[in-house]
Amino acid sequence: MIAYLVAYDGELFYGFTGHPRSVEPALARALGRVLGRGSRTDPGVSALGNVVVSPELKPLGQINAALPRGLWVWGYANVEEGFNPRRARERTYVYIAPYRGEDVELMRRAASLFVGVHDFRNFAKGVENAITQIFSIDVEDRATYIELTFKGRGFKNKMLRKIAWAILAAGRGVVSVEELEELLKSRERRTPVPSAPAEGLVLLSIDYGIQFQIDRNILSRMFRYFQSKHQLYMSLSYSYIKIIENIAKLL
Amino acid sequence: MIAYLVAYDGELFYGFTGHPRSVEPALARALGRVLGRGSRTDPGVSALGNVVVSPELKPLGQINAALPRGLWVWGYANVEEGFNPRRARERTYVYIAPYRGEDVELMRRAASLFVGVHDFRNFAKGVENAITQIFSIDVEDRATYIELTFKGRGFKNKMLRKIAWAILAAGRGVVSVEELEELLKSRERRTPVPSAPAEGLVLLSIDYGIQFQIDRNILSRMFRYFQSKHQLYMSLSYSYIKIIENIAKLL
Q1: If A206 and its partner were Cys, which of A6, A38, A74, B57 is the partner (CB 3.0–4.6 Å)?
Q2: B96/A239 touch (CB, cutoff 8 Å), yes or no
Q3: How far is B115 from B110, CA to CA, in rounded Å?
Q4: DSSP conformation class of A178
Q5: For B114-162, how does the pLDDT look when each residue is reduced to its tens digit (9 = 90+)?
Q6: Which A positions 80-119 lie with beta carbon below 8 A of chain B?
Q7: Same domain, yes or no, for A98 and A119?
Q8: CATH of the domain at B11
């Protein structure tokens, strides 16, 4: 069996799986079959290092030629029969939000609540067993944006987006750290915590303790793709600011 | 005849006219007929206050219900037979570029070259008569982006994007103000000046000295639309930065 490293632009797909225009069916067409996946990311979420398992090794050039725009297979590793890509040592996600005056120290205090083993039932959606471990949540102030880096073995459905919402809400004074603590410790199911927007979340990597063969040419192509989309959306979002400002003058 | 105020998100259309998925055919379906237009903006260029002329007045609610997402008619004025929307007192465009360390004083010096009446043959594309007047070019440093505001009676094909390129290139030291001056004064046709990316350009308004009736409800809807797209693209462009940084570590 082969484990493949997969990257995609979440904006161009209807989620990872379960829809004709999601990532997985496009991968299956190029790889032959997809037997397992590392993470089923939500619609709108991008990934650099997601992993899928397929029966046989095909040349990466041939695979990528059969993939649509915004989706790449950029590495592979031979893995034993029975390798389960759900079982990882560590997953790293980053959540990005434009800076809107959040108090970074309050965000760090809120983030520290979630680190460790907890029952995340009030910070997950539709799961029976919500007990899992977060290794670390790093909160960085990057001047124009806030960056939350999550490390853990595995995360429950919507858990990262709900925790991201909670940390940002604490930083904005919308909820207190004490309220979040109470909600995390409560065994009752409470009013669901909102999920922060999907487009802020990126799956960076999944560590299985195995070494992948990587293709630098494909990585270079990905680099150029994401750089040009970054520049396009940066320019567009600034252009929209001018339209917004001018509409505001008319209202 | 009726002159209508038209706004659109340039990202969603194949330019203003000449393509089945451009702005004008969509307007014509909702308005009945389009007899004239204020500005034929390039593909990718957004507008807040473009103008089209149509034979009869329809209720704005009915027009907007027939328009696709990202296109609005938000005002109207009765105009005389023979009103030519190409002939305006003043057009205002803004060009936005993410800040990349440009020298703002050099940009202001470069911008001042273009103000006044000039033959813009080396800063326009495929036009016979390139003589026109720019009233002003305002260069503002908005910390994360540079904003160039152009005012003039009318601009030649690609002229604003070529002048924006020239001003930004001067600010980055790619060309000198003296070289631009020489190019503007030269009567020979030289190697074409590149055009700055279309997504940075926005048509803000066209002044005909007439008063339009405007619809605040439609403006409010436009405001929410552009605000949510601004936030989406801001978040996405920051997410792409994280992917780019992590690819760079692997290269």
Answers
A1: A38
A2: yes
A3: 10
A4: H
A5: 999 999 999 999 888 899 999 999 999 998 899 999 999 999 999 999 9
A6: 94, 96-98
A7: yes
A8: 3.30.70.580
